[in-house]
Amino acid sequence: MVAAALLLTAGCSAGDGGGPAAAGSAPPSRASSPSSSGPAGERPPPAKGSVEVGRTVATGLKSPWGLAALPGGGGLLVSSRDTGTITRIDEKSGRKTVLGEVPGVSPAGEGGLLGLALSPGFAADRMVYAYFTSASDNRVVRMLYDPKKPSGEQLGAPDTVFKGIPKGFVHNGGRIAFGPDKMLYVGTGESGETGLSQDKESLGGKILRLTPEGEPARGNPFPDSPVYSYGHRNVQGLAWDSEERLFAAEFGQDTWDELNAITPGGNYGWPEAEGRSDDDAFQDPLAQWKTDEASPSGIAEAGGSLWLAGLRGERLWRVPLKGTKAAADPQSFLAGEYGRLRTVVAAGGDKLWLVTSNTDGRGEPKRGDDRIVELTVK
Known about the structure:
2% helix; disordered N terminus
């Protein structure tokens, strides 16, 4: 029988965001209205997929977190959580060029320099967006990227786009992405203060939807609010499918990690619910895992499936989609082969870039860690 959840052995979570908590334009209609099936003629992917490991794109990265691909094969930008730097990786040679250090980053615990995204108008404005933990909060800034300047001086002064997101030693969220509507989506954590997730006036434990300038986007579900969905514990994965439907990965505490289809204004239950619930007030996940098998950070869509990078689970999960439901049981790949997996990004067609996370203080680094690996998937 087709199942939307995978029931695995129990265990306490110990990845980013896992474990016990410590003391514009209107949204696209297809993303906003999850359904059990897609448009007429849309076929679900096969129940069983495959992963082929290709070349290693880069090695020797320190606490990598966010990844953004420059257009036209111009390279990959990678953020370092602990050093606060952004580095360009040549896709062919693996050569590294440090763009510069983002000022104001205050790394500690799970905080530091986290997600990266390129402006929807990057070809013209050359703006790189970054999410980071400062001394007082989590915030989003944008910086001008000028590759003509010397290494270490290629980032302009940061312009603060949005601030005031609660920070903590844990649960800082950190993933940012521009959606098909060209709005900026921001995954936040509840910073260890579980009550923030159900408080629609708080920015913690939410997915936010902003204009590129940092204002609440037109069409958001709550008037004059950046909040798009709430009741989250710690969102570190955001991705859209080919029909512009938004999905998010979320760390559980010590019972269930979640993959969710996001509905504007939806309540995803934390802290009253972790995983599936009998309460109709909460949105159920389309897939869930015991926390020692996943602890999902980044997610990406390729070939009609969502791919989740597992930290504590040390594996890549595939969830084939039929609309906003799982078309078959989740399937795991690369278990234990690369250690902790932080970020996965669509590289076009059937390709993915996968970023490991073994130098973040919670992994067991091997020679060459951390690295970016290219995968072919279906």
